[in-house]
Structures are given as structure tokens and as C-alpha cells.
Amino acid sequence: MESILSEQAASVDELVEACIQAFDEKGTLKDASLVRMFLMMHPWYIPSTDMARKLVLQSREESCTEERRTRICHLVKYWISEFPAEFNLNPELEEQIKDFKDLLTTGGNERQSQLIDLDSVPSYKWKRQVTQRVPSVSKKRKMSLLFDHLDSSELAEHLTFLEYKSFCKILFQDYHSFVMHGCTVDNPILERFITLFNSVSQWIQLMVLSKPTAQQRAAVVSHFIRVAQVSPPPHLPGVSQHAVLCRSQ
Q1: Where in or outside the cell (predicted)?
Q2: Is 71 in contact with 55 (CB distance < 8 Å)?
Q3: Residue 23 bridge partners (DSSP)
Q4: Residue 134: Cβ within 10 Å count
Q5: What is the domain partition of the chain in residue ranges?
Q6: What's the pTM?
Q7: 129 Cβ contact partners less than 8 Å away, ≥ 6 residues apart
């Protein structure tokens, strides 16, 4: 693996081999950085189904030892545990791995087969769902765009939760599609996220410009700066209000 990391470029086959060698027979991962990075970014270079096919074919080679096959199974296990949505949302990939597991079982490699568990992968169908607003037939409620009744921490939590919920639905394939096409065509999840970002930006601008005097506008800007400085909610680890700060500026 050291030779791979020291080189400026490596082929897909070399990276796959480095990922296999990163595990020992007991499943201990020597260096997770390369393995995780490759598993996350490999769709740029090779479809997930093709990579799974590579691993399966290597495990079936006559020269493949018991130890090497076990390492391959540990790599597949790690792939599933770190990126479960990829398997749940890609039926072809899921079927490939299931066939691989069955192949191991019928071949008498029960211990290796047990390393691969797709049954515990939860459903990620919600990541692909774009909610539609249903017009209410009941009495219209009064809506307000003001935030006077919310302090900085409350407003920060509301805005952060909206973005966090929308951001969680974005998958690597959405970014890849945007880069390849240069737009959000056939990419409703990313399009919805951008719409949310722009809508909040416009709302903040409206809050500032709705004030008649410069002093009042400055007070609104100061309020949003305080919002951006609020620590992230404890139930949303690793999230900050940096986006809100950008909008305030």
C-alpha cells in the first residue's frame, strides 16, 4: 500500500488490490483512509457493479488462496457497513453481492459467507423521495416571515435542521450527475436543495431590505450574524450555521 500512496497516480486495479491488502485475515484494517476514500470516490472511475464484479472474479480465480478470499470478504463487509445506501438503492449491486454470498455458501465457505450481511441494511428509499406540497383545503392559516418571536439559537436550529434534512438526501451520484451535465437535469434531489438554499437567501435579503432605515437594517444583519455564531445543535453533530453566515454577508 505504501507504494500506491507514494505514486502520483494508480490504476483502478492497483487501488482495488491495495484495498484488499489493507485487511488482514481477521478483518483488521491497517489504514482506513485509502480504503474509505476509494470506496467513496470509485464511481468517478468505475461503476460500483463493475467493481463488485472484479472482487467476485478475483475470489473465484484458481490462484486465490483462502486467506485472500477472506480479505476480499472483509473488504465487501466494510463497503456495506460504510456505504449501506449504495447497496439499498442499487438493486443490481445488491443482487451481485447476494449471489456472491450464495456462491460462498454453496462452495463450503460458510465462515466467509457470514461476513457479508445485506439483511441488516436499512431502507434508504426516503433519500430519493421528493416531497410535494399538498394544498390545504382547510381554513387558511396566518403565515409570518418575521423572526421577532425567535431568539438566535431557536432560529439557528430551525435553519440548520432544514438544511441538514435536505443535505442528507444528496448522494454521490447526484454530485456526479451535476458535474457531468453541468446542471440539475434529472436531478430533483440536488435541485430541491439548491432551491432551499436560494429561498432562504432571498428570505434573509427580504428581512434586511424590509426595514426602512439603515440602523434597523444593521440590526437585522447583526441578528443573523449572531445566528451564524450559534453552536450547532447537539443532535446534529458536525453541522454549523456557516451557510447562514454566508447569506447574511
Answers
A1: Cell membrane; Cytoplasm, Cytosol; Synapse, Synaptosome
A2: no
A3: 29
A4: 6
A5: 12-115, 143-230
A6: 0.68
A7: 169
Sign of CA dihedral 209, 214, 217, 218: positive
3-state DSSP assignment of residue 29: strand
Single-letter amino acid code for the residue at 17? E
In order along its 249 residues, the chain shows pLDDT tens digits of 544 555 567 888 999 999 999 999 888 998 889 899 999 888 888 899 999 999 999 999 989 999 999 999 999 999 999 998 888 888 899 999 999 999 999 989 999 999 999 888 877 676 666 665 555 555 555 555 566 667 778 888 888 888 888 887 887 778 888 888 888 888 888 888 888 888 888 888 888 888 899 999 998 888 888 887 776 665 555 555 545 445 444
Give residue 218's identity as a one-letter amino acid code: A
Cβ distance 76 to 98 under 8 Å?
A: no
Q: Where are the alpha helices (DSSP H) in the chain?
A: 2-6, 12-21, 32-41, 48-60, 66-82, 84-88, 91-106, 110-113, 152-167, 172-181, 188-209, 214-229, 242-248
How far apart are the C-alpha atoms of 5 and 26, rounded to whole Å? 23
Q: Yes or no: is domain 12-115 CATH 1.10.760.10?
A: no
